[in-house]
C-alpha cells in the first residue's frame, strides 16, 4: 500500500454524532460494491445493508468489541467510512484490506476472450478481505448443500436471536454477529428452529470451540490456512474456499463442490457443462487467480446459467 493509501481525515464532512470518519485514498481505482458484495448473505442480512444512495452499512466484531460502519464511494479512488462502537480502532486497521486495496492482479492475463474482455471492462475489480474467520465460516457452513433461501433465512434468525444490536445510528434491525463463545453455546433446538440440520449445527459449534486456532489463519499462507480449516470435521474444500475468499481475500480460492459452479464455468467458457475435475484442469493455467476469474464472470454479467430441469427444493429440517 502506498503512502497515499493510508486513511486521512476528511475535513469537508462533519461526521455523525459519536462517529469516527476517515477517507481512504487509493493509487488505483476502487469498486466498493464489487469488493463487498460477496460478504452479503441475502437481501435481509442483518449484518449488511445497502442503501438506495449506494452506501453500505455493515457490522462486525473484533477483540476490542463490536463495530458498525458505513462506507461510501465518493470517487474512483476514494472511499469514506463512518464507524461507531468499541471495535472501531481495530476495524480501521483492516479497512484497506476490506475495500480491496491490498489485492493485486499482477500476472493475471487470461487468454480466453470472455475473461479477457471482462478483465478489460472491470480492471478495478478487487478481492476484499475482512480478516474475520468466524464471521465468514458460520454463514458458509449454513450454506452447505442447501438452497440459498434457507441458508439466508437461518443466518437472519440466528443473528436476530443471538447477535447484539448494532452500535451507532445503524438502520433498524441490524445486528452484530455473536462471538465464538456464544456460537459454541447456541442450543440444538435453536439451530433446529433456524432450519439447520444437526450436521451443520455441530460443525458450527465445533468450529466455535476451535476459534482461537482458526482466527490466526489470516496471517498464514493459503496452503496452511486451508489445511487448518479442513482439519475441522465438517469443513471440506468448498467451505474452506468460501471462508478464504472472504476472510483472507484469496483470489485463487475456487469453490470446488459447488452445486452450479463447474457447470457455469463450462457453459460460459466452452459451451458445455464441466465436472469439478474438468473445471480444475481448465482453470489451472490462470492460478493464482481462479476466484478472480469467477468474480469477473459474475460482475460482468457474462456467466451463463442454463436452466435445465427443476429447481432445487428447499428442505425443511424443522419437522424432523
TrEMBL record:
Enzyme category, top tier: hydrolase
Signal peptide: none
CDD domains referenced in this protein's UniProt entry, alphabetically: ENDO3c
Residues covered by region (Disordered): 1-20
Domain of life where this protein originates: Bacteria
Catalytic activity: Hydrolysis of alkylated DNA, releasing 3-methyladenine, 3-methylguanine, 7-methylguanine and 7-methyladenine
Enzyme Commission designation: 3.2.2.21
InterPro entries: Alkylbase_DNA_Glycosylase/TA (IPR051912), DNA_glycosylase (IPR011257), HhH-GPD_domain (IPR003265)
Keyword line: DNA damage, DNA repair
Protein name: DNA-3-methyladenine glycosylase II
UniProt organism field: Rhodococcoides corynebacterioides
Amino acid at each position: 500500500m502506498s503512502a497515499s493509501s493510508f486513511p486521512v481525515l476528511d475535513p469537508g464532512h462533519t461526521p455523525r454524532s459519536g462517529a469516527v470518519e476517515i477517507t481512504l485514498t487509493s493509487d488505483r481505482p476502487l469498486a466498493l460494491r464489487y469488493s463487498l458484495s460477496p460478504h452479503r448473505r441475502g437481501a435481509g442480512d442483518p449484518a449488511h445493508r445497502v442503501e438506495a444512495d449506494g452506501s453500505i452499512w455493515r457490522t462486525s466484531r473484533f477483540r476490542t468489541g463490536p463495530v458498525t460502519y458505513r462506507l461510501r464511494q465518493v470517487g474512483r479512488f476514494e472511499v469514506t467510512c463512518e464507524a461507531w462502537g468499541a471495535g472501531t480502532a481495530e476495524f480501521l486497521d483492516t479497512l484497506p484490506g476490506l475495500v480491496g486495496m491490498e489485492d493485486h492482479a499482477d500476472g493475471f492475463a487470461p487468454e480466453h476472450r470472455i475473461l479477457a474482455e471482462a478483465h478489460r471492462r472491470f480492471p478495478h475489480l478487487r478481492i476484499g478481505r475482512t480478516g474475520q474467520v468466524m464471521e465468514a465460516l458460520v454463514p458458509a457452513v449454513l450454506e452447505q448443500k442447501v438452497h440459498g433461501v434457507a441458508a439466508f433465512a437461518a443466518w437472519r434468525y440466528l443473528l436476530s436471536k443471538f447477535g447484539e444490536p448494532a452500535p451507532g445510528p445503524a438502520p433498524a434491525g441490524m445486528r452484530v454477529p455473536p462471538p465464538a463463545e456464544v456460537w459454541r453455546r447456541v442450543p440444538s433446538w435453536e439451530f433446529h428452529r433456524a432450519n439447520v440440520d444437526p450436521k451443520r449445527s455441530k460443525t458450527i459449534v465445533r468450529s466455535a470451540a476451535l476459534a482461537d486456532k482458526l482466527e490466526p489463519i489470516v496471517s498464514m499462507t493459503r496452503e496452511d490456512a486451508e489445511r487448518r480449516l479442513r482439519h475441522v470435521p465438517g469443513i471440506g474444500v468448498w467451505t474452506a474456499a468460501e471462508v478464504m475468499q472472504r476472510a483472507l481475500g484469496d483470489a485463487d480460492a475456487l469453490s470446488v463442490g459447488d452445486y452450479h459452479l463447474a457447470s457455469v464455468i463450462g457453459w460460459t467458457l466452452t459451451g458445455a457443462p464441466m465436472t469439478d475435475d474438468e473445471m480444475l484442469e481448465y482453470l489451472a493455467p490462470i492460478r493464482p487467480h481462479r476466484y478472480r476469474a469467477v468474480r469477473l464472470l459474475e460482475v460482468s454479467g457474462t456467466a451463463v446459467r442454463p436452466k435445465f430441469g427443476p429447481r432445487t427444493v428447499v428442505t425443511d429440517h424443522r419437522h424432523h
